[in-house]
Amino acid sequence: MRASCRELLRRGKRLARRALSPAKPLLEGLVQAECAVAARWAGAAHGRLLSVQWGIPPVAENFEHDIDLYHLWPARRSAMWVERGVFSGLALKGGDVLDLCCGDGFYVRNFFSLRSRRVVGVDFDPHIIATARRKHAAPNVEFLVGDIRSALPGGSFDNIVWDAAIEHFSPQETAVVFQAIRQRLAPSGVVSGYTIVQRGETTSLPLHEREFRSKEELLAEVAPHFAHVTVFETEYPERHNIYFWASDGVLPFGPDWPGQCRT
């Protein structure tokens, strides 16, 4: 009986599609107009959110990346903010992931969770963790409040992401965090991350403890803690970025990395 009902439903849907076929150009035009209105409204709304969070003191400690998605990306035509998820995503092994200073959880959900068994995001700010839980929850995602200098979640992780956050810590604090990362990273696990290059005489944001002057400077900071480190950069009109992968095992695009083939 259930199979018969399902078949009747399928037939009904096919008949409905055929009946609507002559009206498809009109329907598509109406939905395209709806999409255009929705896109303009979403972009403007997130522009207002940006103005409130970053234009009224105190300046936000974290950035909500829906603002990138709906407002800044269409306005600037820059995919710079997407790189962070893509480059860390290249190192994913499919197991457990720890995202340090995860902020609003955008990258946790949209870049890491689908290709990983479990993702734990941690940030010191209860407000942004509440935002992450509200906007970017997923069945295999957990968001925790904690200071990574003293309260890093326990366990073993195949990937640890420290993204857009090293600049908020002193060299001494960074060394402490890397030691804690080593204790939690699986033997062949990969640490990945991103930070910004300082372009002027001062840091780009007053909340930054320091900024690196070059990819070589970041390499010198990461290399003492891992057998293999790759640091690379991209540059845009508004920002100079440096990324890293670090591991005692195989790194993306290394000779033994399974995600490639060579001639």
The Rg value, from CA coordinates, equals 22 Å
Shape: globular
N-to-C SSE series? HHHHEHEHEEHEHEE
- Runs in which pLDDT lies below 50 for 5 or more consecutive residues are none
Overall residue-averaged pLDDT value: 94
Q: How many strand elements?
A: 7
Oligomer: single chain
| Count of helix runs | 8
Separation, N- and C-terminal Cα atoms? 56 Å
CATH architecture of the largest domain, please? 3-Layer(aba) Sandwich
- Give the CATH topology of the largest domain: Rossmann fold
User: Roughly what fraction of the amino acids lie in strands?
Assistant: 15-25%
Count of distinct structural domains: 2
Topology at a glance:
Layout: H1 2-20, H2 24-55, H3 66-76, H4 80-89, E1 96-100, H5 106-112, E2 118-123, H6 126-135, E3 141-145, E4 157-163, H7 171-184, E5 185-196, H8 215-222, E6 228-235, E7 240-247
Parallel strand pairs: 1-2, 1-4, 2-3, 4-5
Antiparallel strand pairs: 5-7, 6-7
Helix pairs in contact: 2-3, 4-5
Keywords:
263 residues, alpha/beta, 8 helices, 7 strands, 42% helix
Describe the overall structure.
By secondary structure, the chain is of the alpha/beta class. It folds into two domains: 2-54; 79-247, Vaccinia Virus protein VP39 (Rossmann fold, 3-Layer(aba) Sandwich), CATH 3.40.50. It has eight helices and seven strands, in the order ααααβαβαββαβαββ. It has a seven-stranded mixed β-sheet with strand order 3-2-1-4-5-7-6, sandwiched between helices. Strand 4 (157-163), helix 7 and strand 5 form a beta-alpha-beta unit. Helix 2 packs across helix 3 and helix 4 (80-89) packs across helix 5. The longest helix has 32 residues, at 24-55. The termini are far apart. 30% of the residues are buried. The model has no long low-confidence stretch (mean pLDDT 94).
